[in-house]
Amino acid sequence: MAQPGDLVIQRPEGLYCPPGDFYIDPWRPVARAVITHAHADHARYGHGHYLAAAPAEGVLRSRLGDIHLQTLPYGEAIEHHGVRLSLHPAGHVLGSAQVRLEHAGRVWVASGDYKVAPDRTCAPFEPVRCDVFITESTFGLPIYRWRPDDEIFADINAWWSANVLAGRASVLACYSFGKAQRILSGVDPSIGPIVVHGAVRPLNDAYRAAGVPLPETQMVTEVMDRADLRRALVLCPPSAVASTWLRRFGDTSTAFASGWMQLRGARRRGGYDRGFILSDHADWPGLLGAIGATGAQRVIVTHGSVPVMVRYLQEQGLEAEGFETEYGDDVVEADAAAAQEPAA
């Protein structure tokens, strides 16, 4: 329930800061938008002015084109209409940020999407002390508990190696922004060539331009020896697995890398041969640890398992409530990227 003097409230356009007169990740066009990261449900076209963390510039421009973008280094503060604003690493994807707001002696933090697990491709999550914490809860159920990345990458490498011996391509469906680059950073490129879908390539370019090392990749049209396709690891959005694009690889084994693979039946419903549980969001212990590290006594929960998380936090003695937002899961992001980018 909104309280007098709240630094962030709900409006039809999105999450609004009344004293600062700006929005955080608005879903309708506004004059001033603070963007936590470049996924399509958080960074939309049509705002008058964008503010984002400096490492996000390349991916934002890759996705949104020519926008009026102001960037801010992590930890550096600016003041707008008396609100002191700074951006802090969220560990979700390249350039992802939590938004810290300070006004009249109160501190609020809006997390955006975040994960606490290590990731070679982006700055690690940084707990920020605050009075009120707005947290995501995409995987806000106790069943979600992630294994270490090294174990998952070892599983992917073993699957890829087995497919090379069998003479079939290893097609790994993953979100084009964030997940694909994280996988590239962890797999063993000596196993075979790596081919990426047209939705993935511009994001790879943006990551490399930001100084993130990634192994060499090719588009399918750049592969001269067709035999290489039978040894390849192929990274593509989920929508591409059901398209005619896949036919050019011949015999394939398909897999999907996502936190949703922890649910029984998710792999079967998608028609994948394998599922790798790899998420760019915090799991249940990660969410609780991040919330606890803020020291916040009031927590506002957004997209995901909101009622479960709110109830649990209330049982722990915190003041908890939910915000209704139009942020979706990353499947929406993946399909949007596939539709907007060339498939070649």
Automatic annotation (TrEMBL):
Gene3D superfamilies per UniProt:
Ribonuclease Z/Hydroxyacylglutathione hydrolase-like
Mark the transmembrane ranges. none
- Domain of life of the native organism: Bacteria
Key words of the record: Exonuclease, Hydrolase, Ligase, Nuclease
Q: Which InterPro entries match?
A: MBL (IPR050698), RibonucZ/Hydroxyglut_hydro (IPR036866), Xnuc_lig_assoc (IPR026360)
Record GO terms (molecular function): exonuclease activity; ligase activity; RNA endonuclease activity
> Which EC number(s) does the record attach to this protein?
3.1.-.-
Protein's recorded name: Ligase-associated DNA damage response exonuclease
